[in-house]
Amino acid sequence: MKRVAVAVAVAIAVLGAGAWLGTQMIPTLDRKALIISEVDRGTIDVSVSATGRIVPAFEEIIVSPISSQILEVYAHSGDSVDVGTPLCRLDLQSAETDYSKALDEREIRRQQTAQLKANVETQLSDRRMQIEVEEMKLSQLEAQLRNELYLDSLGSGTRDRVRQAETTLRTAQLQLQQLKQQYQNEQRVKQADLRMQQLQNNIFEKGLDEKRRTLDDAKIRSPRRATLTYINSEVGSTIGAGQKIAVVSDLTHFKAECEISDTHSERVRVGGAVILRIGKERLSGIINTVTPLSQSGAITFTVVPDDMSHPRLRSGLKTEVFVITSIKDDVLRIRNGSFYSGPGDYTLFILKDNLLQPRQVRLGECNYDYIEVISGLESGEQVIVSDMTKYKGKEKLKVE
Fold first, then answer.
1. What is the pLDDT of residues 189-203, one digit of tens each?
2. How confident is the model over 73-103, as pLDDT tens digits?
């Protein structure tokens, strides 16, 4: 009995020691190093993520309308400019000479048009006068025919004289008809000539207006009240037509230029709601424009923040962008974490009594804060949402 009692005592001691050693071999994690989320119920604004960059809401590039040379520079990058503020002076001598020649040519064209109108009026007036003369002759011949007919009825005239009077009258009528037809034809031709001249003058006037606008644009001035963010300050340098000279930007109002994978193209639409996350700050906005073409597997769009002058907005600042696609109410949710890569099954560690145990969980869609829980978790449970990849396969973990 003593030997049996000793053997039992030794076995119990060995088992106790083994159990104690087992507990001591469970990996222990620092609670402060873990991100713990409690499962709760609430609303999720389902969104897809994109990348963005803050740019000025209003930016205008000023280009040279002509090939010229920079003679003087009046402003520098960073200066605040107002509407019409001179920025630089170009060599406009050649352009001004061309414009002066065009003004002289316009005056010549006006004189030619006036001369053409006068000639047309003179020719048509002469033709109308001929018609009036022929009408008077025709009236006289009609009177002669009536006299011959009257004399013939009294027996004082002859039939030959009547026929001669009729022939003369008929000839005069044909001549008058011919004159009237010629007058109508000449009138149409002259009017067509005048219209053609007027069209040519109109085309010339448009070209002259374009020269004047080009000359005005070549006097480089600020088109708006803004900040000069760039200017070509190399005095004496030659610039070509269409080459950038300066850039003015409104640095008090901003927007975001964003890019997203084209797999989400159907979710990006003009007027859609968006959240911009800059550090811990979240700014709401709407999609203003969408580029329909995909480049390198991505589409671009612009977002206008509700508060375009928010103090956190700075030109060139990168931002996280979340395009809201739908809203789900009263769903189980946990905090979003780096482990999440899309809807599907995950192995998450559940915290209970300072122990972590893995559990299969199915997750749904997400937004910038929360992930939808479809199954595997209950409200009030605590879940580790930090990266636990290196503990994959562990059945139990201890938390201190």
1. 888 888 888 898 889
2. 888 888 888 888 888 888 888 888 888 888 8
pTM recorded for the entire structure: 0.56
Residues linked to residue 169 through DSSP beta bridges, in sequence order: none
Q: What is the maximal distance between C-alpha atoms in the chain?
A: 190
Contacting residues for 62 by C-beta, under 8 A, at least 6 apart: 87, 220, 223, 244, 245, 246, 247, 248
Buried b (16+ CB within 10 A) or exposed e, 186-197: eeeebeeeeeee
Q: What is the DSSP letter of 218?
A: T
Q: What is the CA radius of gyration of the chain?
A: 47
Taking residue 155's Cβ as centre, other Cβ atoms within 10 Å add up to 7
Query: Are 108 and 201 within 8 A, CB to CB?
Result: no
Place of tokens 């080459």: 243
Structure tokens belonging to residue 361: 């969980």
Cα of 302 vs its chain's centroid, Å: 9
Name the residue with tokens 């008077």: 136
CB atoms within 10 A of CB 43: 12
Instruction: Provide the edge-to-edge strand list for the sheet that holds 238-239.
Output: 88-90, 68-73, 238-239
CA distance 262 to 299: 6
Instruction: Quote the CA–CA distance of 116 and 125 in Å, as a whole number.
Output: 14
Residue 297: how many CA atoms within 13 Å on its side-chain side? 2
Identify the burial level of 52 via C-beta atoms within 10 angstroms of its C-beta, where 0-12 means exposed, 13-18 middle and 19 or more buried. buried
Which position has the token pair 């997203």? 260
